[in-house]
Amino acid sequence: MFRKLVLITVLCCICPGLLWPKELKIDLSARTPTNMALRSVVLPGWGQHENGNTTKAYIIGGAVLFSGAAACYYFDRANTTYEEYADQGVRDNALYSDYESQYGKANALTVAAIVLWVYGIMDAYGDASENFRSEEERKKAGFKVSADGKSVAAVFTTEF
Question: Whole-prediction pTM value?
Answer without folding.
Answer: 0.66
